[in-house]
């Protein structure tokens, strides 16, 4: 046996997550579906460029009125 080999350790959190996955095997698929619903979106690059070009620069002091 090697002196560098250590006994396998897993934390309480890891054990909890593994237990949860065993009890509900569809958990990861549900999580991925939820993520796709809210976060994984295809962005229109052209539209993003138009938004950035149409941006109006902010004044140094926002509440100051512009004097002409």
Structure description:
By secondary structure, the chain is mainly α. It has a domain at 12-53. It is 49% helix and 0% strand. The chain is built from three helices and no strands. It has helices at residues 12-23, 27-38, 45-53. It is elongated and about 80 Å long. The protein starts with 11 loop residues before the first helix and ends in a 15-residue tail after the last helix. The model has no long low-confidence stretch (mean pLDDT 87).
Q: Average pLDDT across residues?
A: 87
SSE order: HHH
Cα radius of gyration in angstroms: 26 Å
Strand content range: under 5%
Low-confidence stretches: none
User: Which structural class fits the helix and strand makeup?
Assistant: mainly alpha
Summarize, please.
With 68 residues, this protein is mainly alpha-helical. It is 49% helix and 0% strand. The mean pLDDT is 87.
Question: How is the secondary structure organized here?
Answer:
Blueprint: H1 12-23, H2 27-38, H3 45-53
List keywords for this structure.
68 residues
């Amino acid at each position: 046996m090697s002196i560098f080999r250590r006994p396998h350790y897993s934390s309480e959190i890891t054990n909890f997550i593994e237990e949860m996955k065993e009890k509900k095997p569809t958990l990861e698929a549900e999580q991925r579906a939820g993520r796709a619903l809210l976060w994984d979106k295809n962005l229109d690059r052209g539209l993003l460029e138009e938004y950035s070009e149409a941006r109006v620069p902010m004044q140094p002091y926002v509440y100051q009125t512009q004097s002409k």
